[in-house]
Amino acid sequence: MSDQDPSLEQLTPFPGTWVPTGNVPADFAPVTDDTGAAADSDCDFREYSWTFGGNAPYFQNVFSANLHTTLDLNGKVVGISVKSDDNATVTIEGVGSVASTLNHPASRTFFKTDGSAYSGSFPLHITYNSIGGPWFLEVKIRVMDPFETFPPVEECSCDGSCGMASSARNGSIDFSQAFGGTPFAAGFPKGSLRIYDRVPVNALFSGVCLRYLHPMTRKVVSFSGTNVVIEDALRRVHTYENGRPAGTAVWTDNQVEILDGCVVETLGDRTRISYDADGNAVKIRSREGVELNVSQLGIDVVSDGNGDLAQVWSLTDGLMNVVRISAHKFRIDWYKPADVGAKDAQSGLYAFGGVPVKTFTFGDIDNDGSCSDFEFLEERPGTNHSFHCSWHYDPAARDWLFNRGN
Known about the structure:
1% of the residues lie in helices and 48% in strands. It is mostly beta strands.
């Protein structure tokens, strides 16, 4: 194991055994038994995987396999990934969830608990029904601690402390803070809160321009055949002709296709987005082949009555709550997951309490009513940490001049 990635922690074998019942294939046995590893990323997880299968045809039979274990999952978040051959129907039960049936799941389908920690043992029960041919079944289990610790802040191009990306060269204000990952499923991109503007408009200072950038917030604007127009959260337009990027974007690896009358977009990193008839993203498949409905991502984007961003909730990262202080100043308060409550049925907003772990204040912080100076202040309540930077707009040069700050 000398070539093992040092960032991965080697684990002991999963403390459990598969107990098959019913018309069990003669070659039922793990082909591989991966003891897994813990990823050194935004949060740690333990992943275990098993692969079963055989070359002998397995016709018109049903067998079940229960996983019996002594692993303590009290207070853990559990995720399950299953992949099988085209000839099978697989039903998953257990881990505190309603049974989920996967019809001929040639691609990996992800299945998890109710979105919170699962208490108790691990009564995983899988029923495999083959209709003929060589059989294959892969099961992966991820076990994670609850997301109660504040995740690392994304490094930035300023000084590495503010989570802000800025460039005076392209004459724009460009803020980016990573938020909203799906670490319980392999290969999913992380979202980010973004502010981008090239001119000093009121929307920049009031927070109207604040967006949440993620594959789930992309939307089909129009399509005719394989000529498709898709807009992302920053309102950047992505045009496809005959399924390929059009115009100046022909170099990109993105592509689209039409399946059952709806658009399916594949991004350059192999993330695949399925849209419904109204153009909304409804399903995402990661570059690792894990497929989730948007409702299963553990991310919720909440708008206010004007359609502006009000909150972004993340199972893993907590809550970003937008506070509009004045017409020219707004603030984002970041609360850790343990301090976030339930979503109110009437207002649609998540409850929260305690002290935010970090705050970001934007706009005309000095309250002089000017739109020529845009300021940013990051603070961590309860600490002496703060970071301030600003931009000044030069109308003659039509450019924002960036002051790194302190």
